[in-house]
Amino acid sequence: MAYAMAIxxxxxxxxxxxxxxxxxxPGPGExxxxxxxxxxxxxxxxxxxxxxxxxxxxDLVTGAEAAGVIEAVGEGVDLKPGxxxxxxxPNGAYASHRVVAADQLVPxxxxxxDEVAAAVMVKGLTVHYLIHxxxxxxxxxHVLFHAAAGGVGLIAGQWLKAKGVTVxxxxxxxxxxxxxxxxxxxxxxxxxxxxxVKEVMRLTDGAGVEAVYDSVGADTLMKSxxxxxxxxxxxxxxxxxxxxxxxxxxDLTRNSLRLTRPTLFHHTTRPGWLLKASAELFxxxxxxxxxxxxxxxxxxxxxxxxxxxxxxxxxxGSTVLIP
Length: 323
Hints:
The protein contains 10 helices and 15 strands. By secondary structure, the chain is an alpha/beta fold. It is globular and about 60 Å long. 44% of the residues are buried. Residues 11-321 form the Enoyl reductase (ER) domain. It comes from Thioclava pacifica DSM 10166.
């Protein structure tokens, strides 16, 4: 029986409950997918908690990325049943089956497993736009990336290193710092025992970095401003520790800094971007330049436990849910 893990109302993890659904049928331009793996991301927590506005009154099905097998296609679709595909959309992935618009799907190469594809559509494509568009890095740049041991951070460290960038990271505890060091980071700072501002300035001989990529928010954003070179860029792309409400536009005047707050789903609407970016991401993985660490697996029915681990910063690398 097809099913989904839905949320009754914005709030805690106890809102998750299983609902039985009829296997959906595709309309024109759509396909029906049977999910084989679903990615876990902080955006799922933001929707569950109500931090991001709900698109429905109740029984919201969250989940922003998944991989699966096409079971049926609608009129005007070139894809075929049995084809392996992946996607990223704001919600709807916490289900065994769903209907997706065909133009939102990307083919999964033979060299990429379903679990890896499901784990990188949000995180890998986020890294793509961060380092190619939000602040386009160049060989020889120095940047700071917070949450270096997380799913996005581990991909970023490897991709940035491949581009000739010296990347500094922050992580909590020796194990996470060691993990990040193994994934492209030149230096990893343990924020639990070290002041990352002092360490970055020491490591750069007082020069600072061209950019900071900050998905942590309240705990780090104001200090991030202190390590950016004149005319440098702060990329704020998340708020795992809470919204950085203390920030004021005038704070940028300390070094004529630039600030950007991009989102993935604005990029996916750009014509041709999704196919191009995902193909580049899969190519980097297939040739071994980026290795994906799937460190946690949960049954989809245990999604509440997965959220608890994510919110408690008990996860490293990527986490997938298996229907």
